Amino acid sequence: MPFSFTEAPIASRQNRRIVGLCKLADRGERERTGLFRFDGVKLLCEAVRREVPLTAVFVRAGSAGRVTERMAELYGLEPDALGCPAYAVEDSLFDRISEENAPEGVICVAKALDKRHKMYTINGKDFPPVPAGPAVLLESLRDPVNVGAVIRTAAALGVGCLILSRDCADIYHPRTIRAAMGTLFSMTVLRVDDLAAAIVGLRRSGRRVYAAALDADAVRLGTFAFGAEDCVVIGNEGHGLSPAVIDACDRSVYIPMQGDTESLNASVAAALLMWELHRGRREG
Which CATH number goes with the domain that contains 229? Predict the structure, then answer.
């Protein structure tokens, strides 16, 4: 069944729906409205499968048939299963407002997932509930692609929760969502105003927390086994972890490297640490 559009194809960049859609490129607007946008047929299908509350779908007029076919191929979905209005957009306008270099033909708007993604202010002994199992903490990761890649790897390796400092890249940035490839829609993500205090809270609850840092007392990754509820902390792409965060952890862990390589990309380092977390649970 093809899309049933509610009006003629939108042709003007000044159309109020298009203006509202484009404003969602700004983090402040996303936080003010509680909405976010993402592009692509696969992400649309993942959103429907994971019951993300969609509010609107914008479809490239000349690609509507192909979008319908891809939805059916990927997940057996029909356009009437989306549960939100669909608007056709003239091809040239769609190509200008899409976040993709090669647009697939669909842009979605959805409500923020407040039940899974929360912001906490940590006061005294109060600490947000963290799901059982390992957790990964991120301090000041500014690149949305890195944050999205960490989310995707966490989902693949059974890490059920990410805890982010307030100044990390927005999880609803279009590039974060694209890099996470739909896994954001089911991942528990907590943002905290004080990451060091969050680490203290985790340790108080009986978890061990390891800082990814090279210091005098750091233990080499692979020479010990992580426990089932251990946590790791990854720092900023350029500066690593702050002294306050390192001091709050149980101890530091470093990734051995050969040659003149001084460091790894933050998402790659996170992937190696999460693999060891996964291996520790599997073999423990």
Answer: 3.40.1280.10
